[in-house]
Amino acid sequence: MSAALNAIFQSHRRSLFWTVMRIVRDPQTAEDLAQETYLKARKALETRPIEHVEGFLFQTARNLALDHQRRKAVRNRYEASDTARKDVENVAAAEPSIEDDLIQRQLCRALEDALAELPVRARTVWSMTQLQGRTCAEIAEHLGVSRNTVYNDIKLVMGHCQDVLARLDRD
Q: Which part of the chain has CATH 1.10.10.10?
């Protein structure tokens, strides 16, 4: 029966290919599924007689093509959901991570240390501008110094903090 199956398959091979091709729309896949149709028919003939071999071949080819398309659709859905999951993972979390929190604490400590290294008046000026929201004119009047001195103190604090941040960045 194997020789008869070979002859039937060879005579219908082109039609089987196009039957599968209409469903999967990929020549390589269609060729593979046509070959798989032959193997399934051969295996089926080993276990039972097949009354209408041509009909069996075409139905098997169609079923294989439809199964292939179903698996492809499931795989595409899985890949799409996997891509969506990865996209969500890449979005910044609403809550800072432990690492972000640790970096933030390290940065605050470094800036506190940097401020402690500065003269008292410069620290006071920084505190009054940043924490109290006072203007340079108010600070100058309060401390009894010129506005230019307040500007120079702010410049000193900012330059020192930038230097500390640059050192942290290098480390």
A: 98-170
